[in-house]
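step: validate -> pass
step: tokenize input -> pass
step: predict -> running
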Amino acid sequence: MSISPIKRESLEKYFSNLYTAKVKVNDIKELGKAEKTKELKGFGYGIPYLFELLVNGETKRVVIGTMRPGDFGHEHFSDRAQILLWQHSAFDNIPRHVRSLDVGAFTVDASLKSLGDCKEFFLITEFVEGEPYHLDIERVGARKSLTKLDRQRCRALSDYLVDVHSVKAKDPASLYVRRIRDLIGHGECIMGLTDSYPSGLEYVDEEFLVKIEKKCMDWRWKIKKKTHRCARVHGDFHPWNVLFREAADFTVLDRSRGEWGEPADDVTSMSINYLFYSLQIYGRLDGPFRELFETFLTNYLNKTGDEEMLTVVQPFYAWRGLVVASPLWYPNLQLDVRKKIFTFITNVLETDRFDLKQVNSYLSC
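step: predict -> pass
step: emit ->
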């Protein structure tokens, strides 16, 4: 799905209005590719483009991105508009996040404007240099050992959440209840993930997914009353949304699903990846990944004193488990790894208090 080609003149007119200065578009290319283009030919939804602009003699680089229509609650134009409008309002309200410069729309006549007779929305952010954190984790797996930098970055990410979550919501009741409700029913969360699993899989069936949903519903009623926990959150804090530069200097991307929520959301989103990569290499939480997992969580718990979080992480780990076991996101994942993730989900949902020293026991039937 794409829109009509957008001419360079329309782009320059839009950017000139944005910067209140005459702007020349020097370069356009799909982010991550080297090929340049003169105009946005059939600008694809969900494909980010990097623009090099000349503004009053100064070179600036910005990124224009859209959302791809599809599952996970993104089916309608209004779904995608809601997300991009919120992102523009929220990106600048959390430390280290890439800045949003504007939110706008592509119109039916293939021009750009702030809003109005729009066909699809887009978001413009600053371009930030950096290497995604998942490459660090992949290097750890290849070496099967940790460097001083690996440990430093793990602690830096944990410290970041300590800082982010230190800001509490002033009116937490409705915000927290909604966030826990969205954890279950949002298109990007638990039910959106279970709906995305096709039928006929040899490793998971409808009966299992129904049990998971029911158990998570029980957890919703346990957790939603804990409104005192409502804090500033990122909402999608995983290794693909963190860009590192030198040492432990990093920027985060793509804050999601609201400014306020449950801190366990961010903690589980990052930490499950240490388990995920470890399962692919060791078949359990072991080696350098065990150290990263325990360092990340122990540092966070020691500095926040939030032992209560261990009684609310369960449905969040279930959600993130459904993500990393997904045949859609990870079609080539080993069968035994998927099975262990599903066992982990089942056992964690049956656990009243998560024990970070006993993770391997959650991987056994």
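step: describe -> The chain has a mean pLDDT of 90.
step: cleanup -> pass
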